[in-house]
Amino acid sequence: MHKNGVAIHCLISTAIVRDEKKEPKFIITYMQDITEIKKAEIALKESERKLLQLNADKDRFISVLGHDLRSPFNSLLGLSEVLTEDIRKFDIDEIDKIVDDINKSARRAYNLLDDLLMWASSQQDSIVFKPKNLSLTDVCNDVLITFNPTADAKNIAINCLAEDCMNIFADFDMLKTVLRNLVSNAIKFTNNGGTINISAEQNSEVVTISVSDNGVGISTDDLSKLFDISEVHTTTGTAKEKGTGLGLSICKEFVEKHGGEIWVESEVGKGSDCKFTIPYIGEPKQKILV
């Protein structure tokens, strides 16, 4: 401990001084402050860890580009070739079906590229973090306008009660991206006729936002891999929906930008509850649905 009270790292060396009869006479102790050396060692280890993580992320990035991106483009090419060569042989209903499949493949390719670019930007810190006072209800309603048609197609009820306005301090685009990914996942893994609830609970410091469903649930083994970019894998939804596998990694990046945490509680066959925290502004209230 330094005299100013700060803990330091020291290297202590000792030597025994002997007289002419080889008897110990006294001990010399030498103490060297190696705090800066230790700091350099820690910084070097951290740099090595980050480099290994970057390599893992790069490998995952290339894997997604090479595998996931090829699939929708194969569909686009195949279906468009069918139309180009034989469009006059099909009736209007058959053409309708092929065009619908082309649209779905194009949307999947677009969503994949969107997720990849968003993730890459977050890794490079090129996304500007602009938090401000927001109404959580307004953000939720904005997100759900996009997903109501998809939920309706599967007869899924999304419960949103906007009786109270809860103020939070967050970046609008990042928060919207997090909710968009969580709601999209909930719809994807909920069966026809299911229910999704978006709820929020606050204390004096944070708001805990929850997106819960009564869908297929997640196994314990998969729960530990959800936010690890090196373990990302895609799972087909209840209506054969496909995803990029990057959504939850992006959510983790954006939630941590706010100083919050994100986690998932789930049980196979009973559904999932995805939760994350965001700084709260205002007086504590009861648990509400938003």
Written description of the protein model:
With 290 residues, the protein is α+β, with helices and mostly antiparallel strands. The chain is built from seven helices and ten strands. The chain has helices at 35-68, 70-86, 92-123, 136-153, 172-188, 220-223, 247-257; strands at 10-18, 24-33, 131-135, 157-159, 167-171, 195-202, 206-213, 262-267, 271-279, 288-289. Strands 4, 6, 7, 8, 9 and 10 form a six-stranded mixed sheet that branches. Helix 2 (70-86) packs antiparallel against helix 3 and helix 3 (92-123) runs parallel beside helix 7 (247-257). The longest helix is centred in the first third of the chain and has 34 residues, at 35-68. The chain is elongated and about 110 Å long. The two termini are 52 Å apart.
In short:
The protein is built from seven helices and ten strands. With 290 residues, it is α+β, with helices and mostly antiparallel strands.
Extract low-pLDDT stretches: 284-290
Indicate the radius of gyration in whole angstroms. 28 Å
What's the assembly state of these chains?
single chain
**CA-CA gap between termini:** 52 Å
Largest sheet: 6 strands, mixed
Q: What is the string of SSEs from the N terminus onward?
A: EEHHHEHEEHEEHHEEE
The 3D shape can be described as: elongated
Helix content: 40-55%
Number of helices: 7
Average pLDDT taken over every residue: 79
- DSSP strand content: 15-25%
Structural class: alpha+beta
Total DSSP E strands: 10
